[in-house]
Amino acid sequence: MDRRESELRALLKMIRDLGGSAPWPMLVNNCNKYGIPLLDLKPLLESAKRKGLIQEKAGIYSLVRFVKH
Q1: Which helix (H) or strand (E) holds 57?
Q2: Edge-first strand listing for the sheet containing 60-63
Q3: Per-residue pLDDT, 65
Q4: What is the C-alpha to C-alpha distance for residues 21 and 69, in angstroms, rounded to an integer?
Q5: Rg of the chain's alpha carbons, rounded to an integer?
Q6: Which H or E element spans position 62?
Q7: How many CB atoms lie within 10 A of CB 58?
Q8: pLDDT score recorded for residue 14
Q9: Band of the pLDDT at 69, cuts 50, 70, 90?
Q10: 20-24, 31-35, 52-56, 62-66: lowest mean pLDDT where?
Q11: CB 18, CB 26: distance < 8 Å
Q12: What is residue 51's three-state secondary structure?
């Protein structure tokens, strides 16, 4: 697993640990605890949005729920 993929997993775990959704300031305050460099946070969020893993509404980032069959 490359660094980017590892950081993406950490981002999703962080949002999950914060209750499934979190505003930008909360993500900034907690990114270091999950090993995500602050400068990589915004590009990671954009990448996760493009992949359909999270959504953003009014500055709140939320996990998108998938049902696996």
Answers
A1: strand 54-57
A2: 21-23, 60-63, 54-57
A3: 72
A4: 24
A5: 11
A6: strand 60-63
A7: 5
A8: 97
A9: very low
A10: 62-66
A11: yes
A12: coil
Name the one residue in this structure whose structure tokens are 């993406």: 8
Structure tokens, 52: 């359909």
Query: In this structure, what token pair is assigned to residue 34?
Result: 């999950």
How crowded is residue 18: how many other Cβ atoms within 10 Å of its Cβ? 15
Closest CA to 44 of 13, 3, 4, 1: 4
Place of tokens 């996990």: 63
One-letter identity of residue 48 = A
Q: Count, in order, helices (H) and strands (E) of the chain.
A: 3, 3
Report the predicted TM-score, pTM, of the whole model to 2 decimal places: 0.88
Q: Which residues contact 68 (CB under 8 A, 6 or more apart)?
A: none
Integer Cα distance of 38 and 57 in angstroms = 21
| Residue 26: other Cβ atoms inside 10 A | 16
